[in-house]
Amino acid sequence: MINFTTVLAEPCLFERIKNVNKKEWLIAAILTFITICAWVIFDIIHIRSQVEIPAKIKEVIEPIEPNLNYSIFETSPLQPESP
After folding, report:
1. DSSP one-letter string for 28-82
2. What 8-state DSSP symbol labels residue 20?
3. Which of 3, 33, 52, 83 has the fewest CB atoms in 10 Å of its CB?
4. What contacts 5, CB < 8 A, 6 or more positions away?
5. Rounded-to-integer distance, Cα 66 and Cα 53, Å
6. What is the pLDDT of residues 27-78, one digit of tens each?
7. Are the CB atoms for 5 and 12 separated by under 8 Å?
8. Distance (Å, rounded) from C-alpha 79 to C-alpha 73?
9. Is 12 exposed, middle or buried (0-12, 13-18, 19+ CB in 10 A)?
10. Residue 45 and residue 39: Cα distance in Å, rounded?
11. How do the domains of the chain map onto residue ranges?
């Protein structure tokens, strides 16, 4: 069986983590928070710059006229014209 403590030349990483003081944890937490905030901000900027709606879709999603044009119903090809 391999003894991993003899394989590693320096102390185990977990021993170093146990010896970290509060100031170092605070620095690590602040740097992590800044990194995550920057990542989110740059990702939002990247997405917003890529979104471009094509002209055909813009034409299709134009608002529909809410008022119904009744003149269409006055002359229908299904009904014979009255004399």
Report:
1. HHHHHHHHHHHHHHHHHHHHHHH----HHHHHHTSPPPSS--THHHHS-TTSPPP
2. -
3. 83
4. 12
5. 24
6. 999 999 999 999 999 999 988 877 677 888 878 887 777 787 777 777 666 6
7. yes
8. 10
9. exposed
10. 10
11. 20-50
For residue 62 the two structure tokens come to 């134009």
pLDDT at 4: 55
Q: Which residue is listed with tokens 């009744």?
A: 70
Distance CA 45, CA 75 (A): 54
**Dihedral angle sign, alpha carbons of residues 5, 7, 9, 15:** negative
**What is the total residue count of the chain?**
83
Whole-angstrom Cα distance, residue 32 to residue 39? Answer: 10
